[in-house]
Amino acid sequence: MAERIKTILNRFKIWRSLKVRLFVIFFLMGIIPSFIMRAGIMENYEDRAIAVRISDVQTQLKIIANHLITYNYLQDPSSEVINAELEQLSSLYNGRVLIINGNLKVVKDTYGISEGKTIISEEVIKCMKGTNTASHDAVNGFIEITIPIIETVSDKMATAETPGGTEVVRGVMLISVSTDTIVTTMEILNRKALIIESIMIFCIFAIALLLAQLITWPFDRVSGAISEVKEGYTNDPITVSDYLETEQIANAFNSLLERMKMLDDSRKEFVANVSHELKTPITSVKVLADSLLAQQDVPPELYHEFMVDIAQEVEREDKIINDLLALVKMDKSAAQLNISVVNINELTEIILKRLRPIARKNNVEVTLISKREVIAEVDEVKVSLILTNLVENAIKYNKEQGRVEVIVDADHQFFTIQVSDTGIGIPEESIGQIYERFYRVDKSHSREIGGTGLGLAITKSAVLLHRGSIKVESTEGEGTTFLVKIPLTRVLA
Ligand code: ADP
C-alpha cells in the first residue's frame, strides 16, 4: 500500500522537489495540531456545559422536591406556589417538568398532556429506588434528569417498618431540558475558532513556505553555481559551505571540474602534438620538392636522392597515422576486444621471426625462452602489438652486439612476457613519462631510428584493456626490462 502511494506520488514531478516536500511537512505539522486543538476544545466545552446545566437543574429540582413534600403536593397538586415554581423552572430551562407519585402516576405535567397517565420508564423506576439519573440526547437536543422526591419520616409518623428519620422516596421529578442555548453558544464559539484557525492556516502557510525556501536555498545556490560554470561565465571552483551536504556536492563538482580541465588540457596537448608530428614530414617533403623545383636541369642522380628522402618522409607520415589509428582503436571499451584462444609461445615466435631482419641490421641477438606452454584468452592483434612494440624498442634502443631476451611464462592465473635488453636504458627521470603519447627520451635519436613516440602508449592501452599490468626497470647504459602480466582467461568488467 505504502509502496503504491509512493509510486503514485512520484508520478507527480512536483512531489519530487525537496522544497515542496518540506513545505507540505511544515504545513501539516502546523495545521494538524490546530485542528486537533479546536476539535478538542469544542468537545470539552460541550461536555462541560452539559455537566454544569445538569448540576444547576438538579439543585433547583432538589429545592422544589423539598417544597413538594412540605406542601404535600403529591396528594394535592393544586398548590399555587408550587405550580408557579414549576412553571418558572420549565420556562427558565425551556423544558417540561413531570411530577410522578409513588404509583408511577403523573400528578403534574407542565405541558398538561400526560397528567393522570402512568409512566414506566427505566429512569423513573431507577429513581424510585433513590438514584438520580441524567441522560443527554444529543440527536434531539435535550437532557433528561430525574431526582427522587424524598421525605424524612418524622417521629410522629414513625411505624415499625419506617422508624423516625428514615428517608422514603415518595415520587419522582422528571425534567426534560432543551440544550438549544448550549448548541447556539457552541456554534458561535465554533465560528470564532474557525476565523482564528483560518488566520492561523494563512500564517502557517506563509511560515512553511518561508522555511522550505530558506532550507533549500543553499541547494539552489549549488545548482546556480553549477549552471554558471556550465554556461561558461566562470571556471573557478564553487563554494557553498552552508551545509555539510552542499559542501560535499560542491567538492565533488570541483573535483569533476578539475578532472574535466585536465582531460581538456591533455586533449589540447594531444591535438597540438599530433599536428606537430604530422606536420614535420610534410614540411620536409615540401622543402625537398621546392628545392628540386627551384633548380633547373637537375641531374637525375639528385632527383633520385631527393625522391628517396621524400619516400622516407611519406613512409614516416604513414607510420604516425597508423600508430594514431591503433591508439584510437585502443581507446574503445574492453567490450570491443576480439577474444580468442591464442598460443602465446607460437605468437611470440612469429613476431620475433618478423623482427629478426631489423635485429640483424642492428647487430642485435634476439632469444626466446618459453618456460612453459601458454594458452590464453586474449585479443591476438592487440597482444601482437604489445610484443612487437616491446621487442622493437628493445632492438632499436640497443647497442652494437647487444642482446634481447624474451621470456614467456605463466602461473595458474596470469601469463607474463618479459622483454630484457642490454641497450642504452632509460634515465630515471623519464621512466614516469615513457607511456605518454609522443614522449621520447631523445626526440632526434628516436626520430632517426623511426620512432613515433606512440609505441608504449599503445602497448599500455592494450595491456590495460586485458586488465593486465606493465612494469619497467631500467639502468641507464646497462639495459631495460619490461614485464607484462595478463590474465589467462578473460576478465569481465
Ligand atoms: P618510440 O616510437 O619513440 O620508440 P615509444 O612510445 O615506443 O616511442 O617509447 C617511448 C620512449 O621510451 C622512446 O622514445 C625511448 O626513448 C624510450 N624507450 C622505450 N623502450 C626503450 C628501451 N627498451 N630502451 C631504452 N629506451 C626505451
Model description:
This protein has 493 residues and is an alpha+beta fold. Among the domains are: 245-330, Orthogonal Bundle (Helix Hairpins), CATH 1.10.287; 334-487, Heat Shock Protein 90 (2-Layer Sandwich). Helices cover 54% and strands 18% of the residues. It is built from 11 helices and 12 strands. It has a 5-stranded antiparallel β-sheet, with helices on both faces. Strand 9 and strand 10 (414-421) form a beta hairpin. Helix 5 (180-230) packs parallel to helix 6 (244-294), helix 6 packs antiparallel against helix 7 (300-330) and helix 7 packs parallel to helix 11. The mean pLDDT is 90. Adenosine-5'-diphosphate binds next to helix 9 and helix 11.
List keywords for this structure.
about 500 residues, alpha+beta, Helix Hairpins, Heat Shock Protein 90, 5-stranded antiparallel β-sheet, 11 helices, about 20% strand, binds adenosine-5'-diphosphate
Distance N to C terminus = 38 Å
Backbone CA Rg = 54 Å
CATH superfamily assignment of the domain at 334-487?
Answer: Histidine kinase-like ATPase, C-terminal domain
Counting helices, strands and paired strands, the structural category is alpha+beta
Spell out which ligands are present: adenosine-5'-diphosphate
The succession of helices and strands, N to C, reads HHHEEHEEEHHHEHEEHEEHHEE
Can you tell me the overall shape? rod-shaped
Percent helix, as a range, is 40-55%
Q: Give the class-level CATH name of the domain at 334-487.
A: Alpha Beta
Number of helices: 11
The appropriate CATH architecture of the domain at 334-487 is 2-Layer Sandwich
CATH topology call of the domain at 334-487: Heat Shock Protein 90
Work out the number of β strands.
12
Mean pLDDT across all residues, rounded?
90
